[in-house]
Amino acid sequence: MSGRHARPDPWDDGTLDSLLALVAESLGYTCHRAPGEIVLLEGPTRLPVSMRDLRQLARLVPRDDWPALVSDHVTTIVTAMEEPLDLSDFDLAQHLLRTRIYPAEADNGVLAARPFAPGLIEVVVVDTPTSVRTVSTEDMNGWPVSGDALFMLGRANVRGDGALQVDDQDLGGVRVSVLHGWTFYAVTHLAWLEEYLPIGPYGALVIAPNRSLIVAHPLRINEGCPRARYRAAVAAANELQAQAHRAYEEGPGSLTPHLYWWRAGELTYLETRYEGDSLVLPEEFSSVLATLAAEH
Q1: Of 5, 10, 33, 99, which is least packed with CB atoms within 10 Å of its CB?
Q2: 185 & 265 share domain
Q3: pLDDT tens for each residue of the chain, 296 residues long
Q4: Structural domain range at position 143
Q5: 238 and 290, same domain (yes or no)
Q6: Per-residue DSSP letters for the chain?
């Protein structure tokens, strides 16, 4: 969205930062910069605000509406964390639990979180009608369920909320499946991707650039010579990588611009590089594809 008009980028003039500081001060907080485009609000509690998310939201409204936008955004975050929420009764709390995927830099050391994929973490949250609140390790201390069982419960509740929409599309000549939904938990569905798509032993190339979107390309390597199979994988990787960068920049709720290889429920980061104008996939990925092709 930001690249459609050739005009100076308005997001670098500090206006949003100034508005954030003003709103934070009015709510009894001060602002401190943190890594990863995060601003920490220090006050009655410590709250992270993503400047990337705020800029993405600001692009969607006229500049005159920015003060109201920032006020609503920050007030929602503060209210969600300061509102009394009794998590001691696990029989009541368990129905509100979900697992949500966040960028790894969101882990402040006290979240109920575990690795999901390189650069991503899976976090237990409490989903109420007014907010989504992360769960801390301290919150869990009085609960009869913790660890893997807690994450299983959160995932089960995400599944119970219903399936994502799946659309098959042509992306630069590459057939892909787009999984999406108006939910903060879309990317959690990567954990059971094989229930959405017919994925063979070669797995699938996938991206999860923001909280509402998964794009997947199941790898089919049962036809053609090894060179043709590799070219097909490179073409798919090239299109997905470009789409990942675009959707990551646009957001909202940016997660990762990376390309992953999904295989048997595991996500491997594929570090791509360019030789001239040609995208090159990691040697390990190419060799595994060759070995699998030889076995089938």
Answers
A1: 5
A2: yes
A3: 333 333 334 445 788 888 999 988 888 899 988 877 888 888 887 888 888 888 888 888 888 988 998 888 888 878 777 666 677 788 888 999 999 999 998 887 888 999 999 999 999 998 887 778 888 888 887 789 888 999 999 999 999 999 999 999 998 888 999 999 888 999 999 999 999 999 988 899 999 999 999 999 998 765 556 667 777 888 899 899 999 999 998 888 899 999 999 998 899 999 888 888 777 888 888 787 777 666 55
A4: 90-160
A5: yes
A6: -TTSS-S--GGGSSHHHHHHHHHHHHTT-EEEEETTTEEEEESSSEEEEEHHHHHHHHTTS-GGGHHHHHHHHHHHHHHHHHS----S-HHHHGGGEEEEEEEGGG--SSBSEEEEETTEEEEEEEE-SS-EEEPBHHHHTT-S--HHHHHHHHHHHHHHT-PPEEEEEEETTEEEEEEE-SSTTGGGGGGGGGGTS---TT-EEEEEEETTEEEEEE---SSS-HHHHHHHHHHHHHHHHHHHHHHHHH-SSB-----EEEETTEEEE---EEETTEEE--HHHHHHHHHHHHH-
